[in-house]
Amino acid sequence: MNRRSFLVALPLGAAGLHAQQQEADTVFSTDVKVVSVLATVLDKQGHLIHDLTKEDFQVLENGRPQNIKYFSRDSELPLTIGLMVDTSMSQVNVIAKERAASFRFVDRILRPDRDQVFVMTFDMTVQTPQPLTSSPRALEKALAFVDTPTRAELRNQLGGGTLLFDSVVLASKTIMAKRQGRKALIIMSDGGENGSDAAMTDSIEAAQRADTMIYSILFGGNEGKSILQRMSRETGGGFFEVSKKQSIDEIFDVIQAELRGQYSLGYVSDEPVRISGFRKLQLTTRQKGLTIQARDRYWAQR
User: Fold this and answer.
1) Domain count of the chain?
2) What are 49-102's pLDDT values in tens digits?
3) Residue ranges making up the domain that contains 194
4) Residue 274 class from Cβ within 10 Å (0-12 exposed, 13-18 middle, 19+ buried)?
5) CA neighbours within 13 Å on the CB side: how many for 206?
């Protein structure tokens, strides 16, 4: 498995959430401010680890140990996915493969009774050809028309660029921030960025505030590789690169397994929120040699 080795911490939100306890299917009141933690654990070969218990984890908030109260190995939380497709001219040779693989991924992962997916494209503009839906047919129809600009569109387009950062900010603020459960943006791009009003830090912080992971799939070139790696690392997602050793379909299979194989943890912070702001997080396991994939801070809302 052609994987990166990011040893970082997790997608958390301090909003009041319904938490699950492993020992009992207890539903907790939304007025309890639970920091909800989703984490993926991998061994040295990149294989998912499924058999850890609550006692195997330790979480630190701003360096202080926290008491993990809620824990589950099998998360049935609703899943919201944004398929973020780079439709700039640099992707003209791979976009057909992206379309086909995206639909096969959606067809396998989507549970119409609880999950939703949207499609967003970005090049010189940011568009949402398919808003949130649980309909595989609607997604297939939308993906069929996702393409790079025609020559006529390029001639009529004012300005230029590839608005990667703006698209992540828009998706995070207008869609993901309103959703509960597990949330992930899947970016298919060469990582090129040109013309966004937002900076990379703005896009990362927008995703973090919305408790959203970014999974990046690099298609061709290395110019934007570091950009995609950082966005994925700091939001708790994963970075992948399409190659002869790992096809886009195989990458989507790994992403699906990770989204379905996460640990769900929850705790109530020992420090009341007096001023809204980011708080540092560190999740570790007692077992050595394991990689924890998640972000390293969360937004504590007063």
Assistant:
1) 2
2) 999 999 999 999 999 999 999 998 766 788 999 999 999 888 888 888 888 899
3) 79-260
4) exposed
5) 19
Instruction: Report the C-alpha gap between 159 and 72 in whole angstroms.
Output: 49
Cα dihedral angle (202, 205, 209, 213), rounded to 10 degrees? Answer: 110
d(Cα 23, Cα 106) in Å, to the nearest integer? 32
Whether 142 and 41 share a structural domain: no
User: Could you give the angle at the alpha carbon of 131 between the alpha carbons of 129 and 132, nearest 5°?
Assistant: 145
How far from 71 is each of 66, 75, 130, CA to CA, in Å?
13, 9, 34
Location of structure tokens 């886009």: 248
| Residue 4 belongs to a domain | no
Half-sphere exposure of 18 (CA within 13 A, CB side): 10
Helix (H, G, I), strand (E, B) or coil at 299: strand
**pTM given for the model:** 0.84
